[in-house]
Design a protein that fits this description.
- The chain folds into two domains: 91 residues, no CATH class; 70 residues, Beta Barrel (Elongation Factor Tu (Ef-tu), domain 3), CATH 2.40.30.
- The protein is globular and about 60 Å long.
- The mean pLDDT is 86.
- 3% of the residues lie in helices and 35% in strands.
- The chain is mainly beta and 201 residues long.
- The relative contact order is 0.25.
- Strands 1, 2, 4, 5, 12, 16, 17 and 18 form an eight-stranded mixed beta sheet that branches. A six-stranded antiparallel beta barrel has the order 6-7-10-9-8-11.
């Protein structure tokens, strides 16, 4: 029995990317020193920030989470998603309209803070996106989006035993992506930073 070739060419479908128009030639290097000990991989579609004042081509992953339940303004523990978010104890998070606070405990479904980050928000609603800041009480985003990770990359080998060195990866700088397929949530500020080059569908 012989193999019959029915089609000689075709398109590779990327669920995250509806159109890939330009990536960074030669790829980028993603820092690995900011990932939780349980993180095995960084999924395609993660937003990246180009570091300044250091070696050209070194990028940080942008961290965000989204509330999965309404919260009271005095709450210091918030229910969040996705389960494989990248936040660690000691990092700072800001909720728009609220305040920034340092993380004291993380799990796949909750993040606890030193102080209530929503104390100036009357009723933080499910669906609100929280992002990383430099340090409390700073409210400016720590990293601004410059590109999007092209393919999923492994962070640790042997399960979670061995943290790999800085990772070589592809990074998209122009194209169209399906926002519903992104692994981590995107803030309005991130969309603004990428508006001229990336279309969110």
């Amino acid at each position: 029995m012989s193999l019959q070739v029915l089609k000689e060419s075709g398109n590779l479908y990327h669920p995250v990317f509806l159109g890939l128009f330009e990536d960074i030639q030669g790829g980028v290097t993603v820092k690995t020193d900011r990932f939780p000990t349980t993180t095995k991989e960084i999924k395609k579609g993660a937003l990246l920030n180009a570091m300044t004042g250091v070696s050209i081509g070194l990028y940080d992953v942008i961290k965000t989470v989204r509330l999965t339940a309404d919260a009271a303004s005095a709450d210091t523990v918030l229910a969040v998603e996705p389960a494989d978010h990248l936040f660690k104890v000691g990092e700072c998070i800001y909720l728009a309209g609220g305040t920034a606070s340092t993380i004291t405990r993380v799990s796949s479904t909750e993040i606890a803070f030193e102080t209530a980050i929503a104390k100036t928000v009357s009723a933080p609603a499910s669906g609100a996106v929280l992002f990383e800041t430099d340090a409390a009480p700073a409210t400016a985003v720590k990293f601004a989006a410059d590109a999007i990770l092209k393919d999923t990359v492994e962070v640790r080998s042997g399960g979670v035993a061995t943290l790999l060195d800085n990772l070589f990866a592809g990074a998209v700088v122009r194209g169209t992506c399906d926002e519903s397929q992104l692994p981590y949530f995107v803030t309005d500020a991130d969309k603004t930073n990428l508006t001229a080059r990336i279309r969110f569908a």
